[in-house]
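[[Per-residue structure]]
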Amino acid sequence: MKIVGFPVDVTHARDGRIARGLRTRQSLIQATLDLIQAGDAEPGSAAIATIAGVSSRTLFQHFGTLADLYAEAFDLAVSRAFDRAIPVAGGGLLSHRIELVVSDRTELFEKWLPVWHFAERVRPGAPAVGQGLVRLRRRLRERLAGWFATELGTLGTDSQALVLDALDLAFGFESWRNMREQLRLSPADASRTWRFTAEAIVQRALAVPVEPETAA
């Protein structure tokens, strides 16, 4: 997955130095993402600078630390992933929405495997990346709630939380990584497993509402 495109348009910048600076900054972010996609879970400054066509000194003129560069690269990857994500639709046939959820997450997570490995690797030394992961998990959970809003709306508050927790666990990135890397399922087989899981969780919740056990 080559992440391209930037939120800052420099084509009409009047000050040439500002425009060159922004382009250099963008090149460094893109080089970081290219290395991540190539399998480098923690790109070094020398490699990033070489790919971007600048010196390591220039890199640190634009980013105080590698952690700052990592954070911007991660944020860009997130923004571009969701720009292309399937719009959430909480209505329509449940079977159709399950297909959309599976398609949405299969495409996103398969492309995101290298980015996720990078984020997990660097977050101890790059707190902003760790915070970005927290926001990403929250956003993914909100999308699930949107996809199944109709079904969740028929449940009590406690049951809603329980079912959403189950969906979040089943459709989290760790689930996809486990199927792909530990179980060594193909993307197609992993998708079929997810489809079965969604049907089992949602339909079971609707047929027999589950209430959390209360403490004795």
